[in-house]
Each structure stands twice: as C-alpha cells, then as structure tokens.
Automatic annotation (TrEMBL):
GO cellular component, one term: cytoplasm
Annotated localization: Cytoplasm
Entry similarity comment: Belongs to the adenylate kinase family.
Protein name: Adenylate kinase
Species name: Desulfolithobacter dissulfuricans
Region of interest called NMP, as start-end residue ranges on this chain: 30-59
C-alpha cells in the first residue's frame, strides 16, 4: 500500500503518519530525510541538491522528483507513506506521472484538514518543561494546559519552569510554510485538489481539530 500524507505544519501529520506506518508496516518517508540521505550518500542528485540548499535556494523539481522516486522505489515491496512531498501542484503532477512510469501505484491520499489560525496556534502554543521532556504542556489544549503559579505559567505535572522552542516561535517561518501549504492556486492545497479531481485515487480528508486518537480513528476506518 502506497500513501501520500498531507497536512499543514501543526496538524499532527507526523504523529498520524507514524501510527499508520506501524499498523501497515510501511516505510515512513519524510521529504527532508530523502534530501539528507542523498546528500550524505554523495549521490549525483545529492551533490546537485546540496548546491541549491547551501545557497538557500529551493531544489528544482527535476532534481527532487528523481530523488523521491529512487527512495520510494527501494520500498516498492514493503509499501510507503510519503510525508512532506509534493508541496506544489507542479510537483504533484510530476510525481504522479513519474509513479505511473515506474509502475508504482498510489493507493491513498490522506489530508488532515486544519484552519490556518489553528495550525499556527498549535505550533506556537507548545511549552517545554525544564525538568522533564515527557511533561507535555500546551496553552491551546485544555487537557494539557500549564497551570498558573505566582502569576506565571508552570508545568502542569511538576510545577517546573516552562520554555518554548525557538523554531515554534518563529512566526515568520511558520507563515512562510503556511503560505505555501494553504495556497490553492499552485501550492500544496492545489496538489491535494489535483488528486481529488483526478478521481482514480481515494482521498481521505479528516478533521484535524480533534485529538490524536480521534484523528487516527477517522483515518484508519477508511483504510483496509
Ligand atoms: Zn514538568
């Protein structure tokens, strides 16, 4: 079984991908890992990609698509779940064509639907406990909300100090990623719509505003 997973940053796509991968024994392939693998392995494509990345430029599709395809091909028999690619309509069309030519069939597209403001809130609301990484705190989730102590928010489990991850508070970077994701003309939403309109692959759209368990249940009930 081969699956594409879509969802904005903050939608829990990585978590859901891991649940599905475990259930079906799929290879969970993240687009970032494909780049790293090729660059580390010093492949021709990796060398080319590295030049773009080092300049801070986007790696063009004629390098990315063959890289993705090569990695997917390795898991042809096992089946795969691809996460974080395609990001644009052009990439969706190119990937679809390349998959057909390679004889690999795309079975499902999973889309985790979440309003942009909520996705942003979910990223920015994460809090880290100074005492224990396993004490989840989040200002937007009632169940794991930090508690107030002396006018300050502290860990709901141990009362420890809370901090944020710098990446999570980088609003500009979050907005930039979401600009690409929510773009339904040429961006990632356009890629999702491409598969919806094609009609020969089943698109499973689920409400990402529910909790992790509810979201995974609504995905799994649509899968065989
Ligand atoms: Zn704590």
């Amino acid at each position: 079984m081969n699956i594409l997973a879509f969802g904005p940053n903050g939608s829990g796509k990585g978590t859901q991908g891991a649940i599905i991968k475990d259930k079906y024994g799929l290879a969970h392939i993240e687009s970032g890992a494909i780049f790293r693998e090729h660059i580390k392995g010093g492949t021709e494509l990796g060398k080319k990609a590295k030049e773009y990345i080092e300049r801070g430029d986007l790696v063009p599709d004629d390098i990315t698509i063959p890289m993705v395809l090569e990695t997917l091909g390795k898991y042809k028999d096992q089946g795969w779940l691809l996460d974080g690619f395609p990001r644009s309509l052009a990439q969706a069309e190119a990937l679809d064509k390349a998959l057909q030519e390679s004889g690999m069939k795309l079975d499902y597209v999973i889309e985790i639907v979440l309003p942009r403001e909520v996705a942003k809130e979910r990223i920015m609301g994460r809090r880290l406990c100074a005492n224990d990484n396993n004490h989840p705190n989040h200002i937007a989730f009632e169940a794991i909300k930090p508690v107030e102590k002396d006018g300050k928010l502290v860990c709901r489990v141990c009362g420890g100090e809370l901090s944020t991850r710098a990446d999570d508070q980088d609003e500009e970077a979050i907005n930039k990623r979401h600009d690409i994701y929510y773009d339904d003309k040429t961006g990632t939403m356009a890629a999702v719509n491409y598969f919806k309109n094609k009609g020969d692959v089943k698109v499973i759209s689920v409400d990402g505003s529910k909790n992790i368990k509810e979201v995974s249940e609504s995905i799994l009930k649509e899968l065989p």
